[in-house]
Structures
1.
Amino acid sequence: MKVVGVDVGGTQIKAAVFDLNGNMLKSTRAPTESRLGKERVLSNIVSVIEGLFSEDVAALGVAVASPLDPVEGILYYPPNLPGFGVFNIKSFLEERFGVSVVVDNDANLYAYGEWVRGAGRGAQVLLCVTVGTGIGGGLIHGGNIWHGAHGMGAEFGHITVDPDGPVCNCGNRGCLEAMASSYFLVGYVERRLREGVASRLAPLRGVLEPKLIYEAALEGDTLAHEAFAVVGKNLGVGLSSLINALDPDVVVVGGGLSKAGMILLEPVKKEIYARTLKGIRDRIRVETAVLGEFSAVYGAAYLAIKIIGGDR
Amino acid sequence: MKVVGVDVGGTQIKAAVFDLNGNMLKSTRAPTESRLGKERVLSNIVSVIEGLFSEDVAALGVAVASPLDPVEGILYYPPNLPGFGVFNIKSFLEERFGVSVVVDNDANLYAYGEWVRGAGRGAQVLLCVTVGTGIGGGLIHGGNIWHGAHGMGAEFGHITVDPDGPVCNCGNRGCLEAMASSYFLVGYVERRLREGVASRLAPLRGVLEPKLIYEAALEGDTLAHEAFAVVGKNLGVGLSSLINALDPDVVVVGGGLSKAGMILLEPVKKEIYARTLKGIRDRIRVETAVLGEFSAVYGAAYLAIKIIGGDR
């Protein structure tokens, strides 16, 4: 028997087929084409799954970047999938493929993947943030995904780091997402360059990307290091609040920006050590994610394996 | 059958006997005498329980202000009970009384009491803060108490409200506890009076208490209102982070300062509405605790009822 894990993002659909031990057998990806509307997106999702499907497949796990009801499998106005409104993707796919389908939020499944087989393996309480253009969160406790009372899950990107900080997309001020995302990183460097700070990044003003800043940091650029230190500090402040509030044993930092490794993680760890309670700070592991951009696909597959009662 | 709930605080031991429907039948209290050392405190706890004990009593629930292992019933260096070090209070009381004993942190049991029979009744996810000299936290999810990975529970008092704020007892800066406790409230008024702000509280400089500030607010004193507004705002910033991170359906504000009712709660609610996610803010209830200073005794008793499998 096998399962298929799918991660439906705003730009890409990623998917893979797994055996019941959780080994990835074959993966694929395709554009979501979200601008072309709901029917096109659904047809793209179906095509991707069909490319991996066989009679052996017993269940599908689906990750979507959306508020959702994980029991019913209903999406509520996924912000990156215009036109979906309220949509039962579980029923849709169960009808189409005739197997059990389990649906959850992509950040939750990213965390779940890291818990089952990544950096958070075996944690009692795993706290995970995905740091990219935005910041997502996932919380795994006793092997269960935290969903909250209304299916909003663990929106760690919207804890307040600085009550008077910059305005966030959500309307609040000083959210973690507004102060530690890759968007913030780039904006910080752009602003410092405008202020006249010397840096090998100066010629790249206007076309900066996190990767270029990371490479400059590797080459010893002071401004690039400063920018990662600021982002790492802000991330550390936010994570410290969450750590004191929830007492996890493992914290996983994932998402695109986590590819910077220790350049990001070192200031994060320093801030966490300074701000967390004595009873916790010496007993906590802070790690970068290891499953890469297929983390949520892994998590979706593991959830599918779980619902059909298979081993991992 | 009956159970006894006990709350061992730094200054007082409170206890009561309950029927299995959770009705309090008789309550009592006695000084903890923590300065007189461990043996004296234990003897005081035993005396209090003996005063309520009978052959009918099938279990004891005990709340202690301490880091602890709730499964084994071991206290780890309770800060307000000098000399206890690492102590198995569960074994001690089981041996002494010959009934099952269940032990948990006082803030956890305060929250649990409010969940079973207080302002948070029936919540899927209940987030509770107790605002007094310090700020405690409790998180109830699906009827279970959140303990974290190391038994530290939900230390909501130590989430960061302002990264550059005043130093907290824990060593961190700008913790909720350092910016929204009754200690902060009094300090705020004292400071404003020193600055020469007019207030009917001026003659009380040096002997101010939260109750006096509350009474002045009731009488329309501008400074007293300002102080509650600042505390309420800070509390609202901290609670907003927790709400976005955990998606509760009910938030209970308890502890001594919650007696101020709407004078405290109004600025809290205003801040929460401004800072929480759209998907949550219209669906959340924010309430003051209703069980009063015996909340943790109720919670301890309900936990005792739960472990013997009784109805509530």
2.
Amino acid sequence: MLDTSAGFLVDEGRLDALEIGAAVLGTGGGGNPYIGKLRAREALRQGYVMRVIPLEALPDDAVVVSVGGIGAPLVSHERIKHGSEGLRCVRALEKHLAISVDAIVCEEIGGQNAMEPLITASMAGLPVVDCDGMGRAFPEMQMTTFSIFGHCSTPSVMCDPHGNAVIFEHAISEKWHERMARACVVAQGGASTLASAPMSGRFLKQYSIPQSYSQAIRLGEAVVAARQAHADPIRAICDSENGEVVFRGKIVDLKRKIEGGFVRGTVMVQGFDGYEGQVGSVLIQNENLVFSRDGVAEVVVPDLIVILDIDTGAAITTEMLRYGQRVAVLALPCHPLLRSEAALEVVGPRGFGLDLAYRPMGRAEKERKPS
Amino acid sequence: MLDTSAGFLVDEGRLDALEIGAAVLGTGGGGNPYIGKLRAREALRQGYVMRVIPLEALPDDAVVVSVGGIGAPLVSHERIKHGSEGLRCVRALEKHLAISVDAIVCEEIGGQNAMEPLITASMAGLPVVDCDGMGRAFPEMQMTTFSIFGHCSTPSVMCDPHGNAVIFEHAISEKWHERMARACVVAQGGASTLASAPMSGRFLKQYSIPQSYSQAIRLGEAVVAARQAHADPIRAICDSENGEVVFRGKIVDLKRKIEGGFVRGTVMVQGFDGYEGQVGSVLIQNENLVFSRDGVAEVVVPDLIVILDIDTGAAITTEMLRYGQRVAVLALPCHPLLRSEAALEVVGPRGFGLDLAYRPMGRAEKERKPS
């Protein structure tokens, strides 16, 4: 039996903190969680209850379904969701498979997909598990620890705001699932919601990134506390996430284009505040993928690269980067699961078509210091 | 109970005739039925039995599913189907809806979609009903009498040759179904197979185009007989279909482009053999839509416009039109169901975005003669 009194409730204060934390963990992508937060807050005010339970509270045979938005973040900023898409996905999946879902799980804690599971779960009267499949944001559906470690994400259900529903009954691979769902979401107007095939509690305990919600909320709360104390929010993020500032400077060049549904480009930063005479650059595909110093790659995906406004400590998403912004570049270590060989094939530099080896940022740091 | 001894069997000779008849009824589109015929013949040679039963043999409560190819005809010429796509669609639909299918029906008798129902039905051990939803070929899914007269074609199942399966669980309209399925078939490589939501025997008796298979086969047999007798196959087509030759001449200009997944264009024909000094033109969107004489529209969709090689009597599909071809243009009256107001909204000139009124070709003929 699932202990539904375990874990913690999400209130409006925690939603605000989650918004900040999810934006940082979005590493430039994943969409801005602000709109999602407004929808979640509205649900709270209507009396829906949002409970996050720890992985340990989940029975091994629990039936857990992941829910998230799919499509272009920019579309979801302009076209508000109907609201019940996630719930319709879960109900259709239950009917199609003749199952009863016990809990909802998050695919992607970075960006706006942190909010959808809370909204859907509260409407369904279910808890959300305190974990996710990325520990950050990634641009494609197959880039979850769930898929990487063997979960077949079909059958899945995709619902749009108009009322259309599509079941991806079987895909011969996770990449094919992504390909078909991506084409379909474009036909549906660019921003839909998807629920994937159920996973067991046992599988999640082994292959999810644990404590994503509590981590993201704690991170947001640290930033809020630092701001209230007029302390440095960037320092607070580094302390909370075991990260480090790798660069400070002004954006002096920005190449950015939309290609194949992705934002791609490079941002160049002229150093100051201890980085004078250095040029930092960040390579982008929706998310920040590689940070280089004077042309040498130093922090590489799946480690997290976050570009922050140097004054407010607010994370800047890739579509919001502008010439002249004064920024700090942070590196945060990714979860060890993402550093496994199987994961690096999918979410390491090669997974993004980059001819670059992955070096864990902790090691890179050590190697860099002596020089 | 369904009388499975009713109707007739399709043998190799009838397949050959069907290929010819379906090409004529394709009115320039629907894809060349040759490849489909080869697949159907192979199934016959493997021992599968193809039975076509009359509408009257169908009980009112029979569960009938339509099956057809969806995608670009040219792709299906180059990439041979796996073979079991239609069967997988039917089985997935049966499982999803917990039903048992009694018979298969054809969406589109014109072009290569005449063959798929025979192949699928024979593999499933089911009969094909002697009717279809167009009586010709049309480019989009919602252009069937089934959809026009109120059948909701979802849930439907689409399978590709790779092994992927998608269920369109619910579409808010037939056009939305078309839009999502079209996007998905492109992602699947451009040529998949789709089975639509079941229809009852009662519905089909009222709203299908009856006797499509026997008509197409009889038409093909008339052409074969004319060729064997060194008679005029074009005359044979007109006699069989109550049609008339409206033009003879040489193709002197051809504008054709691929736009939004459709072949669009105009073909100009300089008259001869009684049409000297006249210029005929045919407007194309996959199928032949409008025949005009000296700039005045004379035969208009949904009436059938067929361009034939003047020597062999073979139908020329729109992608095979070439400068210098010597052709006859035939007009064949469409089925009365397609001339209803409801049908003309969808498959009349306005359904194709043409600012043109529909005049039944019989009437046009009468009006033209006195002048």
